[in-house]
Design a protein that fits this description.
This protein has 328 residues and is of the alpha+beta class. The protein has helices spanning 3-13, 30-44, 48-100, 116-122, 188-194, 243-246, 260-264, 282-293, 309-326, and strands at 105-109, 128-141, 149-155, 169-173, 183-186, 201-206, 222-233, 249-252, 267-276, 303-307.
């Protein structure tokens, strides 16, 4: 391919006579003939000498110019690509929250007792898009020496956590079915600690409370065993906002909540995660939820509220410097 000829055909298209009328493109010494017969006409045009010099340079060094054009194209593409990457990074976490159907606020009855009827009534409030129940248990890993290591262990009586609310990202294996007893999904950190893969058996200790003091009693620990069905990443672990989210985590299958062992273990609390409808005001929802709690004795008549907006803000702040760095 003759890049010089191609370039000058483009010049002809805009009115510049790159070759003489009726000239044969295959005639030897064509360029010399053009200069002899039409040199005066060509050079009298504005910038004619510049174009003539450019034509000669193109024929002699078109590979260099092609390399320069490629380099300029690459440089020109870096900024749009970086900007697009920054936008993707900046919106990655909101997209994750949407995919996970992440809860926006946790409601904790003061009684620390299960309140399924209250949760069902709260789900009917006009501001609520979805309500998911969970119970947090005091559970630890067995240790040969020293104190057992606590694990963030929880289960969802209604089977929503990890599935339709606060969905987990399965890395290996499969999610347990809602009616499968004795099964668990663990995070990569716990999998590494106990050297387990899907299909393995997870041994834990359920720690009950002392009936006289009401405090957890390690001497009364209950051995527990679960079959690991999957290793997964929990949305709260991306950028942990407190120590509990940074430790190993395990989600126990729903039937565990109805077992005798579960009723004997010390419970940190029973709570419901709530996702609001688009445009709903959190203050209005909390007001209605508190008024509703007075009608259900199981709640103790009062509620604790944990807004998850702090977690969202912390995560977005942690991710944003990566986006900013892409466009600098």
């Amino acid at each position: 391919m003759d890049l010089g000829a191609t370039w000058f055909r483009a010049l002809e298209a805009v009115g510049w006579p790159a070759s003489p009328p009726d000239a044969d493109s295959t005639t030897p010494c064509c360029d010399a003939c053009i200069l002899d017969r039409y040199g005066a006409q060509w050079l009298n045009r504005p910038m004619g000498s510049v174009w003539l010099r450019l034509r000669a340079d193109v024929r002699l060094g078109w590979r260099t110019l092609a390399a320069l054009a490629l380099l300029l194209g690459l440089i020109g593409g870096v900024v749009p690509t970086a900007a697009a990457g920054a936008r993707r990074t900046d919106t990655a976490y909101p997209c994750l929250l949407s995919w996970a159907s992440a809860t926006q606020v946790d409601i904790l009855p003061f009684s620390r007792e299960p309140a399924p009827r209250y949760y069902a009534a709260m789900a009917r409030l006009p501001q609520a898009a979805a309500v998911s129940a969970q119970i947090l248990y005091q559970i630890a890993l067995p240790a040969r020496h020293g104190a057992p290591q606590l694990v963030e262990a929880f289960s969802s009586p209604d089977g929503t956590i990890g599935v339709s609310a606060d969905r987990v990202k399965i890395v290996q294996g499969r999610m347990f079915t809602s009616r499968a007893p004795g099964q668990a999904v663990i995070d990569p950190q716990l999998a590494s600690l106990v050297h387990l893969r899907p299909g393995g058996t997870l041994h834990l200790l359920g720690i009950p409370d002392n009936p006289r003091t009401g405090e957890p009693d390690l001497s009364r620990a209950i051995p527990l065993a679960f079959r690991v069905t999957a290793i997964a990443v929990f949305d709260t672990q991306i950028v942990p906002v407190n120590a509990s989210f940074s430790g190993p985590m395990v989600l126990l299958s729903p039937p565990f909540t109805g077992t005798r062992a579960a009723r004997s273990i010390y419970v940190y609390g029973d709570d419901a995660g709530v996702r609001l409808r688009p445009g709903a005001r959190l203050t209005a929802f909390l007001h209605d939820a508190e008024m509703l709690a007075r009608r259900f004795p199981a709640t103790g008549g009062k509620l604790g509220v944990i807004s998850l907006s702090d977690q969202v803000t912390a995560t977005e702040r942690a991710i944003r410097p990566q986006a900013v760095a892409l466009v600098r």
